[in-house]
Write a structure and sequence with these properties.
Keywords: Flavoprotein, Oxidoreductase. The protein is about 35% helix and about 10% strand. It is α/β, with parallel strands linked by helices. The chain folds into 2 domains: about 20-305, TIM Barrel; about 310-340, no CATH class. Helix 2 (about 60-75) packs across helix 3.
C-alpha cells in the first residue's frame, strides 16, 4: 500500500492540480495494491499545510474523480485520507484551531460538544464525497496529534463532556466517525484507520485496548499502524522490551487487515514485516525515491532504495514536481542541502 504522503502541490483552494494528477498517474502504474491520497481536508478550517488537497466541498469532486479513475485504470484500489488538523489548524492559511482543551492554543478555548459533532459530520460527508468521486474507500487519519489523535490523548484532552475523561469517552470521536462513515457509505466501502502510538501523550496500553475493540467489532477494513520505525521496541510500561508492532499483531483481528509503515526501504524489510504478522506494508519515502517500488521488489528480491539524501535533480528526473520537491526540502535528510 502507498502510505498517505503530504506533498503540498494542490491549488490553494484544495483543488487537485495537474501535479497531483501526474503524481497519481505515476503511482497507478507502479503495482500498489492500494493507493492513499495525501491528507485531505474535511473542512476548510481544518487545514494544516499550504496547497493541501481538499474534499470539503463539491467543487473538489472533478479533480478527485480524475485521481480515482487513474488509480482504477492502473488496477489498484484507492482511498482518500480524511484529515482535520484540530488545534494545529493553520490560521495563516484560513485554518481555525479546534483544540480539545483550553490552554493548548493561546487565546483559543476548547471547541464545544456541538462543534465536535459538526466536525464528526464533516468527516462523514467527506467520505460520501470520496464515494461519489469513485474511490474504493477512505482512510481516517487518527495519528500524529491531529484532531482524532488529539482527542484520544489524556495529555491533550481534559474535557468534561462525553468526549473527554474516560478512555471510552476520549475514543468516542473516532468511533463515531468510523460508524458514521459505515452507515453513510455502506458495507462495501472500505474504511481504513491510521493510528500512531508515540508522542502527544498517547498511551500504548489504551490504544491497544481501543484497537482490540475495533478489531473485534470489525468496524474497519484495515489498520494502518504508523510507526516512526517499524522495528522499534517499547521503552516503558507493561509491554517494555517487545516490538511495538507485536503489541498489535498479537491481537485477534478477525477480518480486519493490519499493515505498518516506518523505514521500509528494501524488499528484505518488507518481507520481514510480513513474516512478523503484517498483512501488508505501507511504503512512504521509498515510494517517493522510486515511484514503482512494488515493481522493483517483484523483479528483484534484493532491491534496496537509493540512500538518502538525494539531490533535487534526482527527484526531478524521477518525475516529481517542483512543488513536491520544495515540500521535501523541509524534511530532515531527504534532499541534499543546496542541491539544484
Amino acid at each position: 500500500m502507498l502510505a498517505p504522503l503530504t506533498n503540498q502541490q494542490s491549488e490553494f483552494d484544495g483543488t487537485a492540480s495537474e501535479y497531483d494528477q501526474t503524481w497519481i498517474r505515476q503511482l497507478a502504474q507502479s503495482g500498489y495494491g492500494l493507493i492513499q491520497t495525501c491528507a485531505t481536508t474535511v473542512e476548510a478550517g481544518g487545514i494544516a499545510f499550504a496547497r493541501q488537497l481538499g474534499i470539503h466541498k463539491d467543487d473538489h469532486l472533478p479533480g478527485l474523480k480524475m485521481m480515482a479513475s487513474a488509480i482504477r485504470q492502473g488496477g489498484g484500489l484507492s482511498a482518500v485520507q480524511l484529515h482535520h488538523a484540530g488545534h494545529r489548524a493553520n490560521p495563516h492559511l484560513g485554518g481555525i484551531p479546534a483544540p480539545a482543551s483550553n490552554g493548548v492554543v493561546d487565546g483559543v478555548t476548547a471547541i464545544t460538544t456541538e462543534e465536535v459533532e459538526t466536525i464528526r459530520d464533516s468527516f462523514i460527508k467527506a467520505a460520501k464525497r470520496a464515494q461519489l468521486a469513485g474511490f474504493d474507500g477512505v482512510a481516517v487519519h487518527g495519528a500524529f496529534g491531529w484532531i482524532l489523535s488529539e482527542f484520544m490523548s489524556p495529555y491533550l484532552n481534559n474535557r468534561k463532556d462525553k468526549y473527554g475523561g474516560s478512555l471510552e469517552n476520549r475514543a468516542r470521536f473516532t468511533i463515531e466517525v468510523i460508524e458514521g462513515i459505515r452507515k453513510a457509505c455502506g458495507p462495501d466501502f472500505q474504511i481504513g484507520w491510521r493510528l500512531s502510538i508515540e508522542r502527544y501523550g498517547l498511551r500504548l496500553e489504551e490504544l491497544r485496548e481501543v484497537t482490540s475493540e475495533i478489531f473485534d467489532r470489525e468496524m474497519i477494513d484495515y489498520l494502518d499502524l504508523a510507526l516512526w520505525d517499524s522495528a522499534q521496541l517499547v521503552q516503558e510500561g507493561s509491554f517494555r522490551g517487545k516490538s511495538m508492532l507485536s503489541v498489535f499483531t498479537e491481537l485477534p483481528r478477525k477480518g480486519v487487515r493490519l499493515g505498518t509503515a516506518g523505514k521500509i526501504m528494501s524488499a528484505q524489510r518488507a518481507g520481514e514485516l510480513l513474516d512478523e504478522g503484517c498483512d501488508f506494508v505501507l511504503i512512504a519515502r521509498a515510494g517517493i525515491l522510486q515511484r514503482d517500488f512494488p515493481l522493483q521488489v517483484k523483479a528483484n528480491p534484493n532491491y534496496d532504495s537509493p540512500k538518502l539524501p538525494v539531490t533535487a535533480g534526482y527527484l526531478r528526473q524521477g518525475g516529481l514536481s517542483e512543488r513536491f520537491i520544495n515540500h521535501l526540502r523541509g524534511w530532515q535528510t531527504f534532499v541534499a542541502p543546496g542541491s539544484l
